[in-house]
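Quick note —
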Amino acid sequence: MIKVAEALEASFAKIDPANANDYKAGLDKLKTALTGVDNQYKQGLTSCQHKTFITSHAAFGYMAERYGLTQASISGIDPETEPSPAEMANIKSVVEKTGVKTIFTEGWSPTPPPRRSPRRPGRRQASSAPWSPSPSKATTPTP
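Predicted structure written out below.
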């Protein structure tokens, strides 16, 4: 994101040199904020018990790659697609192999999470908005 912001700042400064200092100041502020978020993720992830996380659909691939995590998604990239039996079997296998106890779903999704999600005592479902830096505190234990 910083590279994109730098390219935009350079373009704006070239088109509007009278305000170049404002663009540079805005870029510096954004870079500081993004670096802060990056550092928070790095620090927060150091104490994770699991490097694998499960989501209702594959929305966090870039984040997983950047921070050395493994994303397992129930229904692939499309949040409205019902998972196939093979996808559900794969997620069940991931849960059993990794011990992951939470499946992250998007609270705003127009469709509910799959009815066949791997539910067992001690496992839970947590809602996480894709624009939020952390999952909601309101998590619901799965039956």
